[in-house]
Amino acid sequence: MNEFFEEGLAPQQCSMDREAAPVHSTGPRRGKELVVLGEDGTSAMLRSLARLDPPRDTPASAASGVRRGHSCGRKRVQAELEARLGVNVRGTTSPVTYRASVMLVAPHLAVANGASTYWERWLYARALAVRAGRRHMHQDASLVLHRILEQDLDVPASLIHIPVVQLSVKHAILLHVATALALAPDVLLIDNITASLDDGAAQRVRRAVQLHAERPGDNLSVVWASNSSAELRRLGLQSDFILHEARHEAMQRPPDHPHRLNQRDAAKKREPQSYEWFSSAAGRGRFEWLMGLAVTHAFLCQILLVSAAHVPASFGSSPVSSSSPISALWATAGEMFAFSTPSRAAVVDPTHPVNISFPSVLIAAGLLFITSILTYVLHLKLILTVIFAAVRCTVQLCLVGFVLIYIIRINTPLLTIGYCCMMIAAAGAETVQRLQYSYKMLPLHILGCQLLASCVSIVFALFIVTGVGIDAQYMIPMYGMLLGNSLTGMTVSLNTLLAEFAEHKANIEAFTCLGATRFEATRGIVARAVTMGLTPSLNQMSVAGLVAIPGMMTGQILGGTAPEQAAFYQIMIMFLIGSTSIVSVSLVNIVAVTVLINADHIILDEKITRTEKGPSWIEKAGHAVTRIFRGEGEAAPIPTSET
């Protein structure tokens, strides 16, 4: 090995201002061992050599003679490794073929549970190697894997059938090394794989790798990388390159990267507990005010209920002149309370709906407010959230009811389509607001997927199923139900998918480093995300009519429609909801995978940012309208500690 390092190498200093000689790669050179020592940057360099990260500005022509053990920067060391190994990271070779010949072995890939067992991972990796043109992967390759496990690494072969989550770190690493050796790549990149192993296991790994590197039949080139000189001495290795990285790898990530955010959150002061929210005098005052309001509201609701139960049938007749204001007020009060009297309830006409007055809505709100006190008892800190949601629901539905009166009365296609466009914009904003992670173009992708799926379904329903065309009375309610259900499905699905990219990236890289494409590597994750996104719609279809009567059927029955017609309408809308959810959820996951994994099958997790849980879109719109009416223009930036 020493002859390889010293042969043809001039004792040049690692100076970046020297003119480097061009390097011409003629294919991987096999049977070599290179050792890199560096506190920071070794993992990033090996990932770049394996083409798991986007290539940096490190041309292969930058390689020049580097003396053994000389301290160099990452660019020079990587260029030198490319030259000595005969690989070209920026070549025209397909990433799938390249990763089948240049393979990374790392601890985080060993414990990744993308596949349930190592046997499944082995079968998948062998199929990828055969597809990439690795002709040596014949049917007896599994026997080679068993031989490496039992003879070279002294590991029971039965461990490959045990789920990865049940394996110890030691056994997972040994199985990972055995799988990589059995695949017989041209170059094996070993990233600090023995740091968590005992002396015996580390020496077995060292002997197994050395045996395969020197064996004439399946010799390979190996790059050992470690951040500890003691670890190299334990393995009997001497550093050929000392990597000197100016900045830590983690500091090069953007400030909104999920890993940076997790570190930042861990350094922050702990958040106050739920019982500390009312520890101050102001907090106790707010709580006393809320409790007093709840008791008063409950008392008034009870008075209204008792009064409504004892209203006589002639309550609407006025004892004074019918033209006086008191008479009008008396008649209004009679209409307000008479809907719940036993005498009126006994003669309700089933073909005409029973109108509900605003005080009746307040009675229902009182019940919600009283039960929300339970969230404070359980220290959930949700009482203000419940109040805000209830107020927002009341305001929005009242405004919608007021606006729909005129839209349905006018009933023009332009006005109806415009209102539906406003609905889909609000649905897209709500979906993004509910996500834990996001990326730059996600709002447009959500909007496009929702628009495509919902438009196809609503056109099919209006022009083919019902034949009513663009009619506001039919289009707006059905379109709202389609958007509402697809919003829920896309939120659940995207939360699952983006959390997997941000928090469990190794589960995807465990397949991409073997030569899998982006859609092959994320097939299981996308299937799980789509399944979770479609579960609410499928459950709703399963229990409809048996456990619960859906909303559209309930509304039509209360509105006086015949139950059989209401059932047919509900069946139709359930089928439309199912088709819309399937298309929108599947499409948005495919688009997200395409954005987060580029055409070279490299995971771009730096695009993922944690969603800021600030004011909602409706609050921002309200503040903007307020500033416009006040004539304030743009809002001043919020001062920070840095300014």
UniProtKB/TrEMBL annotation:
Membrane topology, as annotated: Multi-pass membrane protein
Subcellular location: Membrane
Lineage of source species: Eukaryota, Rhodophyta, Bangiophyceae, Porphyridiales, Porphyridiaceae
GO cellular component: plasma membrane
Pfam family, one: UPF0014
Name of this chain's protein: UPF0014 membrane protein
Record keywords: Membrane, Transmembrane, Transmembrane helix
Superkingdom of the source species: Eukaryota
